Amino acid sequence: EQKEDNDSTECSQLGIMDLKFTSSRKYISISVPSKSQTMSPHIKSVDDIVVLGMNLSKFNKPTQFFICVSGVFMFYLIYGYLQELIFSVEGFKPFGWYLTLVQFGFYSIFGLIELQLIQDKRRRIPGKTYMIIAFLTVGTMGLSNTSLGYLNYPTQVIFKCCKLIPVMIGGVFIQGKRYNIADVSAALCMSLGLIWFTLADSTVAPNFNLTGVVLISLALCADAVIGNVQEKAMKLHNGSNSEMVLYSYSIGFVYILFGLTCTSGLSPAVTFCSKHPVQTYGYAFLFSLTGYFGISFVLALIKIFGALLAVTVTTGRKAMTIVLSFLFFAKPFTLQYVWSGLLVVLGIFLNVYSKNMDKIKLPSLHGLWKKTVEERKTRTLSQTV
């Protein structure tokens, strides 16, 4: 009995101590900023999608789709037209790197303006990562712009459609990845389409130069790498689109400026552009502005409808760009361009299908045969009755 009394006394003391501990416990509240404070103002949240100051969440789905597709086609078609128009200026073709310098300058200004609209202006991604991204961005856009001095614009667009090829090659040799039949078929279709398109270009183009193919191929490899680096950096450090644009393009601007200064390529370009300010700086401003706005609608399209539909729309836009290039700018044409372009489009479709097999279910030969047999049995039974 004495032991039980001692136990009950200890329990009551523990209860009193626990009560005192509970009453003296302090709670810490942690406030987490909303997504609208950390993301780009172009796309603020799932429920509130704002593009160029226009709130798309007020409209229904068909209207949102129409607005996004119209924005993608309008801005990117103007972008492609202005890019080819700049290089059609007589004497400008050697200054592709200077055009990239001007474009990087405009993009840096646009990114700085956009960053001022965001409440959280801190730089989240490390400077070393931005130096790598800037180098890859310079390679992608600089080599792509310079290749237009040697290639027809449709050939350049066809090459840019085939980013899957260097991605797959890098995945096999660097990461040891294995790909399914759809991916391999997509790469083969794209490769054959590229070879066929390039052969057609070399046959009908009077000033075809293999240097352009090498430049656009290197730009394609850099473009395949930069997407993975950007995605990893933004997910790891929660960086915004405007931060990525500002720092990657401003650092890239310094890279190109240093390179042009060392190679004595800056002075001739400045002299030429000063003689044609409207055809160079004026078009370059609109060229950069439309490219910056176009990506806003692409991001909105991905946010609302998913990557599958966005890829379909952008592929259609590239096809329309090639058609308009032949219509607005005089260049030789052959039907070989059509067949090789269709091969590339088939490769793009196979690539999209391989990534969305659960959403896209194509009918198999066995399924079609089984359905045909069942229809025949049903007809026979109905005739007998």
Architecture overview:
The protein is an all-alpha fold and 385 residues long. The chain has one domain. Helix content is 75%, strand content 1%. The protein contains 15 helices and 2 strands. A two-stranded antiparallel sheet has the order 1-2. Helix 8 runs antiparallel to helix 14. It is globular and about 80 Å long. About 8% of the residues have low confidence.
Brief account:
By secondary structure, the protein is mostly helical. It has one domain.
Secondary-structure topology with pairs:
Layout: H1 2-23, H2 35-38, E1 50-51, E2 54-55, H3 61-87, H4 96-116, H5 127-147, H6 153-160, H7 164-174, H8 181-204, H9 210-237, H10 241-262, H11 266-275, H12 277-305, H13 307-328, H14 335-355, H15 365-384
Antiparallel strand pairs: 1-2
Helix pairs in contact: 3-12, 3-13, 4-5, 4-10, 4-12, 5-9, 5-10, 6-13, 8-14, 12-13, 13-14
- Uncertain parts: 16-23, 26-47
Count of all domains: 1
CA-based gyration radius: 29 Å
Q: Order of strands side by side in the largest beta sheet?
A: 1-2
Which outline best applies? globular
Order of helices and strands: HHEEHHHHHHHHHHHHH
Mean pLDDT: 74
Give the key terms.
385 residues, mainly alpha, two-stranded antiparallel sheet, 2 strands, 1% strand, globular, 3'-phosphoadenosine 5'-phosphosulfate transmembrane transporter activity, transmembrane helix
